[in-house]
Amino acid sequence: MAVAGRLNVRWAGGSHSGQAYCSPAPRRCGRAALHCPNLNEGFRLGAVNVYRRCCRPGCGRPAVATLIYAYADSTAVVGPLAPAPDPHAWDLCERHSAHITAPVGWELVRVEHVELDDDAVDAGDDDDDENTDITALAAAVREAGRVTTGLVETGQDPIEYSAEKDFNNPDTSNHPVHRTKRVEEQIAAHKAARRSHLRIVPDPEGGE
Description:
Layout: E1 7-11, E2 20-24, E3 27-29, E4 32-34, E5 65-70, E6 75-80, E7 90-92, H1 94-99, E8 107-110, H2 129-148, H3 176-194
Parallel strand pairs: 6-8
Antiparallel strand pairs: 1-2, 3-4, 5-6, 5-7
């Protein structure tokens, strides 16, 4: 029976009692010769360029920005690419980061640069550098969202909620589901108010 291709059989350790492994003979593809690496040593992937890709479906472009949702402030923030992947964030390419929009009733904030606080960085612990960067980005996201949405005014203390406040109340909750519904109801009421000056006039009876 004919077998396609050739296999070079070698014995590990030079002993016939050892385990054998097979590697395909070198073959040429166009002008470049492709050599199979030694399977006993494993594949070397040091030359492979691994980069994070955009999380949008069908997009394989390199990620250049990170999208984070500040749910407490109903704010979506697009900032610099986080040093490490975060399961609660979304990496975006240049095209999608420029055209991203916020959900209905939310506000979109763009953070071009994040400055790290020297007091928050431990100079003697290099393992926490990435965690420090992520923490600083998250803090900048939250601060930018709170200031932009008007929850905090510059130079003043944050708003303190009363202990009786119900954050699950759909009439006052800032959760995107409840807030989106309220915004849609406000838009519908506004459109109805604009048409309130119109009324139906019945046809006159017994016209001439």
